[in-house]
Amino acid sequence: MARNTQVTADHNAPPITQILAEYVASHPSRGWSDAVDHEAHRTFLNWLGCTIGAAHHEAAKSALAAAQILQTAPQASLPGRQEKVDMGSAALINGISSHTFDFDDTHLKTIIHPAGPVASAVLALAEHKGLSGRALIDALVLGIDVSCRVGNTMYPEHYDRGWHITGSTGMLGAAAGCARLLGLDVQQTAMALGIAASQPVGMREQFGTMTKPFHPGGAARAGLMSALMASQGFTASPKALEAPRGMIQTISTKYAWNEITDELGQRFEISFNTYKPFACGIVIHPSIDACTQLRAQGVLADQVERIELKVHSLVLELTGKKEPADGLQGKFSVYHGCACGLIFGKAGEDQYADEIVNRPDMVALRRKVEVVVDDSIDEASADVTAFLKDGRKVHVFVEHAIGSLQNPMTDANLESKFHDLSDPVLGAARTTQVIEACWKLGQSPDVRSLTTLSQG
Prior knowledge:
The protein is of the alpha+beta class. The protein folds into two domains: 16-275 and 437-454, CATH 1.10.4100.10; 282-398, CATH 3.30.1330.120. The protein is built from 21 helices and eight strands. The strands form three sheets. Strands 6-5-7-8 form a four-stranded mixed sheet. A two-stranded antiparallel ribbon has the order 1-2. A two-stranded antiparallel ribbon has the order 3-4. Helix 8 (165-182) runs parallel beside helix 10. The chain is globular and about 75 Å long.
């Protein structure tokens, strides 16, 4: 029986695999503004802090134990730990650690967490080869540009189908960054992207489990391996991204090719990166911000009769867990996030500990949160009203939460966040040294000075 397939396929797509390969292979080192370069350093700093902070989490320990069964060679470091493993395992484990706390960077246009796959891959390779910090920063900027531009091409339809877009685009960014570090020519870089294009990873069903942070780790390892294979002559389709049965048209019903080509080499997606002040899903941040403001206005948890929270439907779709059982589930509960904001005035990793999620006062308060879906409210906003037992009402509307592009975290905010994550692992004094090294990374002759300093 004949099948009618690819009825909406675009057979005239531009040669974006080749376009991106030429871009990655030939764009000049530091071929962007000082502002873009500074954002790259902010991105790496935030990624490293998140990675160190979760280095001893059960997810990282389990992944390391599995990798060690393979008798891995000590090629690359695991920040926050003493062990060394092979490059691929380092990319995997560091990618897992960086995303375990759900505290990493976010490209808000696509909800991609771009540094997890790209930084995890390029740091492992750069350390093994003894490359400079400038080479790493260049690879980070270009790799993130590739993954986020492909994400722009497919979002939101691809995400709405259930793909975790961080993993399903991250292997392309990781492959691009590693191809750049290896000095691959245009043809080899196209092959690296082509090999990676057959390895998108991650389904949204896994949110709230250890497998969610596996996605950026798996993408990092896949991208690194793709570049290494291409460097040894392994081949792929030269149209792996754009062909009717290529990656993009297979896993998305939207393919806005201009999102890849517009202002390529002039506009850099890392410029639109944001950093989380709260260790949970990004769509919860406006609600937490609002509840911290209620607390700052003197509202106490024991005064509250109920809290009315008005948000876009996507917030409930992604973070609607009313009764989270542990910290991982708590990160996907807007109810728990509101309780954190009002009781603690913050929502760092400590507020997502299992014992906090199950603490009686937290459970009682989050049960007082009533969510009203209102799609006239932007996904990045929240409208919160606290109805108090004495009859008063206190209202807060957050249009743009702290950490957004419109209300960004400062360098000092990022350093404070890094200390909160790293001090328990490395100690405050060494954490300060690591932070200073991150800001100067683009001037470092060898990234090994940083990786050595970052070991637990």
